[in-house]
Amino acid sequence: MFNGPYMITSVSHTISAGNFITEFEGVRQGVYDLPPIDNFIQSINQNLLTQIEALVVNKTDKPTTQGTTTQAIANNVVQDADENTLAAQNSCSANLDTSYISWVTTGATQTTISQKDFAAAIKASAPNNVALQTAIYMISYVRAYTKSLSNAGQFSSWENNFGLITLDKDSYSQTENFVQNSFFCVNTKTLGGIKQLPAARFKNIDAYLTYMKNILGNRMNEIQDQGGLLKYYVTSFPVDNMTSDEYEKDKKRYVENFSALFVAAAKSASDNGLNGGVVVQETPVPQSPQSQGNTPAPTPTCPPTTVSSYSPTTAAPGTIITINGTNLEFVREIKVDGQLVDIRSIQLIGTTKLKFSVPTLSGGVPGLQYNITLDSSNNTGPIILTPPLTYA
């Protein structure tokens, strides 16, 4: 006998008391060859093997649709905390990574903290590393800061998950900081729209900050030297999901969607004592020639706030006014006829829309017009809306 395949041509059995003998007759076959087809069973076997071979080839040789994959990854990047809401239980279970397949979903308790207290907690958790402190603050700002006003909002999320760490990706190798075997669902604003994503629970803010230190701590040099915090956020937070080349191909989209948020995050961090000098994004070196002896003017780091329109232009106390413009996240206060608008009535939607409730004006006369003014940290003077508001 030799090792290798045979085609069996006949089988015979001899049975006697206490004995069972089977004899085979066959023809030696080539290692990779099938015998000539001369019966129906062989035909079925060949068809089956052909289908299996095709599946293997498709699985190993199928070309990667890189553009589609990168687009899908980008569409999952969390964009704006203002539009995040708690989702129904089990609405996000289909997006749960298999690493957490045995975990169960329940409701969640909202957790909030002021800018000042959040900055203080970060300083206590990561002393003597101002750059790391600032990076933690800024990423948390992008993912969990509700911007009622740029300098008067608060960090708001659920279950101390101020970075909205989702469980739709592979294990982050930091799962010991999560509350085990449990998650909740969030309607999350991403570049691809609102998506129901499973989110991790943290026992307290210290557990969340420990997680963030572990994720960011060893990558600060990379963040500073290879494109800044915005690029790291899109490509690698909380896990690597996009290459640098893939980011550069669609860089304009990411800058347009995140630049203003990160600039606002940097300003908020600075206002609360975190001045780590974290690079937000690479600044291109200007190529235009310069006249000898002339020093170019510095490029503004924050674009000014502008207002294009507002409505309605006639309103009674309690009416909601909608303002449209750009860079509205830098607005610090709103006044109607010099009277300060209650901050609790102000809602910032993205960076281009702001809503507030008309206050009851002391001495206000229905039918008369009064100025609405905005005070923005990026403008040298107040912005006066036109036409004036007609008080009803």
Please tell me about this protein's structure.
This protein has about 400 residues and is an alpha+beta fold. The protein has three domains: about 5-60, no CATH class; about 75-270, no CATH class; about 305-390, Immunoglobulin-like. Helices cover about 30% and strands about 25% of the residues. It has nine helices and 20 strands. The chain has helices spanning about 40-60, 65-75, 115-125, 130-145, 205-215, 220-225, 230-235, 245-250, 250-270; strands at about 5-15, 20-30, 85, 105, 110-115, 145, 155-160, 180-190, 195-200, 305-310, 315, 320-325, 330-335, 340, 345-350, 355, 370, 370-375, 385, 390. Strands 3, 4, 8 and 9 form a four-stranded mixed beta sheet that branches. A four-stranded antiparallel beta sheet has the order 10-12-16-15, with no helix packed on it. Helix 4 crosses helix 9. Residues about 60-70 have low confidence and may be disordered.
Query: Termini, distance in Å?
Result: 104 Å
Mean of residue pLDDT? Answer: 82
Strand content is: 25-35%
Order of helices and strands: EEHHEEEHHEEEEHHHHHEEEEEEEEEEE
Question: Which radius of gyration do the C-alpha atoms yield?
Answer: 32 Å
- Could you tell me the number of beta strands? 20
Quickly count the domains: 3
Specify the helix fraction band: 25-40%
Count of individual helical segments: 9
Described by the principal axes of the CA atoms, the overall outline is elongated
> What class do helices, strands and sheet pairing give?
alpha+beta
The main β sheet shows up as: 4 strands, mixed
Low-confidence stretches: 59-68
